[in-house]
Design goal:
Blueprint (H helix, E strand, L loop, with lengths): L4 E8 L12 H16 L5 E7 L2 E8 L6 H20 L24 E7 L5 E9 L7 H9 L6 H4 L7 E7 L4 E6 L4 H8 L5 E8 L5 E5 L4 H5 L9 E5 L7 H5 L7 E4 H4 L1 E4 L1 E2 L15 E10 L2 E3 L14 E2 L7 H15 L19 H8 L8
Helix pairs in contact: 1-2
Bound molecules: 1,3-dihydroxyacetonephosphate (2 copies) and magnesium ion (MG) (2 copies).
The site of one magnesium ion (MG) has 8 residues, from loops.
């Protein structure tokens, strides 16, 4: 039997230049050095280091399976080293997402976000890596619902016999740490009934019901619960396999042409619209946003990432397809700025700010405490 490949993305914000903007290039270089060592040691097959806004994303391929201690430790040490670089330059939020003093065997619960999937590599295996900044895992629920549940978005659900069999959804209740698996198309409306509450439910994984394995995985590590107090939105990643019984690359991208409001902009406490762009254009510059969404694509080739670089290039040295770089996304970008500006016109009022339970910052307890004696019953 052919050994299954694992694609792991582990990401963290360990510091950025002048506010929550972008990591210093030397921090990304430090991660590249570490992961190149990981290839030499036989832990990784290949890797690609990139960023969205202030979040460093490590894309890694390996045969160690999901939740591998070796792979998680390699990522953890890379972030530790990058944080050291950030601290030496007194960058903003240096070490922000490293919530634990030491590595305990798994990155989950320690601050960084992770999305991993193990599967049998097909003859042709297109993979999409979505990366978001200034938002939360449930930001993917609306686009993934359109992709896997809506035949008016994904024609493949109607005309591809294997996609037509439907998909299983692992939905997480991020507040109570419970999960449930539900099946489309039969339970489509019930799935949407949960996912519509983006403050509580998020898609963790999607599985093919035609025997193709995992189709998508999202990082759902909610930092507020991890830390015991709210320390930031997760800026989640989502990895998707495409084509031949799964949604096509174009079907995955299409929903991002719509304007979608997502939570987590400015101090983790506001709603803004998803702004699709290249990682090169993902510096949040308007009110720390708008929330960015990037999408990079590779072909998997015997455990290696194949992009536009020459055949057999060194591990880690890649040029992926950069899907939101092209000008057809200008319309979506302009609409995102318009929608975000509209939300800003509400200042500190809902719905521009999040509901009280989701606010990363709030002065309310103090205000209420100071007013305790002044509150009277209304006749
Ligand atoms: P090709 O026939 O060009 O492979 O395209 C098929 C497809 O799925 C396009 O979305
Ligand atoms: P990050 O979660 O991307 O660090 O942003 C935090 C923030 O509050 C920006 O305004
Ligand atoms: Mg930050
Ligand atoms: Mg961020």
């Amino acid at each position: 039997m052919v050994q299954k490949i694992t694609v792991s993305v582990i990401k963290a914000d360990v510091g950025s230049v002048c506010g929550h903007t972008r990591p210093h290039p030397s921090m990304l270089d430090k991660c590249r050095e570490n992961l190149a060592d990981g290839v030499k040691q036989g832990i990784l097959e290949d890797f690609y280091v990139t960023r969205v806004g202030d979040d460093i994303n490590l894309f890694m391929t390996h045969y160690k399976g999901e939740n591998s201690k070796d792979v998680h430790e390699l990522a953890w040490n890379s972030f530790l080293d990058a944080a050291k670089v950030a601290k030496s330059m007194k960058l903003y939020g240096a070490g922000q997402d490293l919530l634990s003093d030491s590595f305990s065997g798994n990155i989950r619960g320690a601050g960084p976000g992770s999305a991993e999937m193990e599967f049998a590599e097909r003859d042709s295996e297109p993979i999409l890596f979505f990366m978001a900044d200034k938002t939360e895992p449930s930001a993917y629920s609306l686009p993934l619902s359109r992709i896997y549940l809506d035949p008016f978005t994904t024609t493949g659900l109607v005309i591809d016999a294997r996609a037509k069999k439907g998909f299983d959804f692992e939905v997480h209740d991020v507040m109570s740490h419970k999960k449930v698996t539900m099946s489309s198309p039969e339970e489509t409306l019930s799935i949407l009934s949960l996912l519509g509450d983006t403050s509580r439910y998020a898609i963790k994984k999607v599985f093919s019901r035609a025997g193709l394995g995992t189709a998508a995985v999202v990082s759902t590590d909610k930092l507020n619960l991890t830390a015991g107090k709210y320390v930031g939105k997760d800026d989640p990643v989502c990895v998707c396999r495409a084509q031949s019984g799964l949604p096509s690359v174009g079907e995955y991208l299409q929903p991002f042409m719509n304007t979608m409001l997502v939570a987590g902009w400015m101090r983790g406490s506001h709603y803004g619209a998803f702004f699709p762009c290249s990682p090169d254009h993902s510096d949040p510059t308007y009110f720390d946003g708008p929330p960015r969404i990037c999408c990079l694509g590779f072909q998997l080739c015997n455990g290696h990432l194949q992009g536009l670089e020459s055949i057999g290039s060194k591990a880690g040295v890649h040029t992926p397809m950069d899907f939101f770089a092209n000008s057809e996304w200008d319309t979506a970008r302009n609409n995102a700025v318009k929608a975000s500006k509209f939300m800003r016109s509400h200042g500190p009022f809902m719905p521009a700010i999040l509901g009280p339970e989701e606010m990363e910052y709030t002065s309310r307890p103090e205000v209420l405490n100071a007013l305790k004696k002044r509150f009277e019953d209304i006749e």
